[in-house]
Design brief:
Largest sheet: none
Distance between the termini: 125 Å
Oligomer: single chain
Number of helices: 1
Shape: rod-shaped
Order of helices and strands: H
Radius of gyration: 45 Å
Strand content: under 5%
Amino acid sequence: MKPMASNRANPSISLNEQAPLSDSGKQVPAALSMMMDSMTSMVERAKIDLENVDQRARADLENIDQRARKDVALLDQRAREDIQKIDQKARKDIAILDQRARADHDLLRKVRKARELTS
């Protein structure tokens, strides 16, 4: 258990001691000086924390970018494969249609010849 803070004056601080002076030569109370040191320290720690967060964010962004590039490459590969399959099927379908058209054309030619012979 921590001892309770006391409101008693610190005996090591003399009432005759002079408070630190600011640049303008005015006295700065010790509490204000301590507060400024504390705030300066907090700002420095905040800057370091911000740099660390920024560094982690950049690393995370790089990882996400690399994964996205891999995903896009995979999708591109699959799309190319799908297009190739569709192209092959279309070529087969065109070949079948061409074969049927030639057969129909041959049949029509035979019908015309048969009509010419009978007329």
